[in-house]
Amino acid sequence: DGVLDVTPSPIPRHQRISRRIEFALVRALEETGQGEVFDAPLDVIFDIHNVAQPDIMFIRNERASIVGPKNIQGAPDLVIEILSSSTRRTDVVLKSKLYAQFGVASYWVVDPDIDRIDFYRLDAGIYRLARNASAPTSVEAPDFPGVVLALADIFK
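Above: the chain sequence. Below: its structure as tokens.
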């Protein structure tokens, strides 16, 4: 809504978790020709007043037209945010409302403090928890068949 929110850069553990999730998505979704995976920093332009930089995002091939030469113009199919002490409130409250408002179908919240991922699905304009899982289990991501995350490896 036009309010500038600047956060400090992520810590090394955040980046390791991000890389491991991204690689799993690339192997399961991008290399199988389903779409493209991106990571921060990359602007997602929802409208003139609402721009975000999710940690990780995925855009299905049938929606590839939203990928522009400089940014993403529209809602990705999947957005992943990795929580940190400085971003927890923004990611859980503000960004989730923003993503829901603009139609991001799947939203994953990764919590490194408790080694858990909450998988949300957009339903009637709000996110509903589809599943959650904690390390050391492995989990198949809801709405993304073939995306199996070995959480012990993700959070090591």
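The CA atoms of residues 21 and 100 lie 22 Å apart.
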